[in-house]
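Dear U.,

For the methods section draft, I wanted the exact inputs and outputs in one place so we can describe them consistently. I've listed the two proteins in the order they'll appear in the manuscript figures. Please don't edit the token lines directly; just add comments below if something needs changing.

First protein:
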Amino acid sequence: MSIYDGDKQIAQITKPLTVIDNLDSYFLHIKDEYESIVPILSFFTVYYDYRKYNNSGEFTKNSVEITTSYTYGKNNDKYNPNWIAEEFGQQTADELERNLNTLMEQGSAQAKKIVKLVGFIFLVLILLAIILFVCIYTFL
């Protein structure tokens, strides 16, 4: 999400597309001359997360949500995908990209564990059903 002062971009809030255990992460990049509004943007980020991605009351363990996002808004022409690199340097943009990739890798690894666990439970249930069927059939 890009934040503007008039036509000038002053900040960017980046939300990874991978969420592990309902713990959303956000990365805030803001120009130095606007650092006085960091508390406001932080509060806005919490409010935005609450309104858009509200999972209150849910208790999860070993859950992963990996989404894909496409934006077709009227402000797409204003979005500059290179803004962080241009304002904070390529090293900062690379670090953000590494953080996003790390979250995606962690989410994928956890999703694989969940699939294996569900598969194992399903296999155990099938084996129990077969054993139960054999026991009932042999006693009849």
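Second protein (the one for the lower panel):
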Amino acid sequence: MSTTTPAAPERPLPTPTRDSQAYWEGMREGRFVLQHCAACGKVRHYPRPVCPHCFSMES
């Protein structure tokens, strides 16, 4: 008796935003690019417009 393996479901491609564009371009090039806050200097991931550490909107 033979069995078949079900196909893996297709994952949707991400839609880059203004904040995540550099991250996705880096991934496409094989680089891991993270945002750094211009106000406090801390690294943040996932890409977003507001720093979760100091709440600055400077990137």
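Candidate sentences for the figure legend, describing the second protein: The chain has one domain: 16-59. The first helix runs from residue 21 to 28.

Thanks,
Y.
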